[in-house]
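Why Transposase? Reviewers of the renewal asked for a concrete example.
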Amino acid sequence: MITCLTGFQIIGSYQAFCNRLNRLGGAFTRLSELLLEDTQPNDCIIDQCLLDSMPIITCSGKRKGKVANEVTNKGYCSTKGVYYYGMKLHMLGIRRQDALPFPEQVLFTPASVNDIVVYKERWSEMRNRTFFGDKIYMHNEFNQQVKNQYNSEMLTPIKAIKGMPLIIKQRIKAADDLYNRAVSKIRQPIEAMFSWLIEKTDIQRASKVRSTKGLMVHAFGKLTATFLNYVLNP
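Here is what the prediction returned.
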């Protein structure tokens, strides 16, 4: 015999559930901010920062992005070697010795925004810092200006110079390789941070999102959950 439970009659619709969930975007944003403000570990090397970004993909670049067009557009992920529609997560992490960096600031931008643009507009005026970034942050003239004005230095792997004579390349290769390995070793923890974030939350995959509010809940909700895990299990 099948009995109808009257309790099911008062369950809200799926649309109503999604609306209530989407309203939590602001709460997740503020909670993630509070976690970053109040839980900085004691072993942070506060004058050394790691910079990097990762994609949050709403659809592949072969299709036309139709979701959350206010905050997304088409970009290129050099790590994956693919074009995509979506956002980009930028992180400024404080270096810790032999541990994942502490996320000092996290920003979301449309996918097409270059990492060096975010650095110039948001972080280049920080004083007395040493930044470690990948080759995208190499801009000798601007970085020298930052060093002179704010006593902050950007260290990146050395790019090969086009047209350099072979004999000079061979002469400086050993020194450049040692320097590049040193910078890459210091930067490796922020890459591990992103891998851990993806493993725990699958934040990169946002193909099921259907609205701007939903994308914000997806991004900040998963980021907040990760930060809670990070803080409670250092």
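Residues 124 and 146 are 7 Å apart (CA to CA). This is the kind of structural detail the renewal will allow us to pursue systematically.
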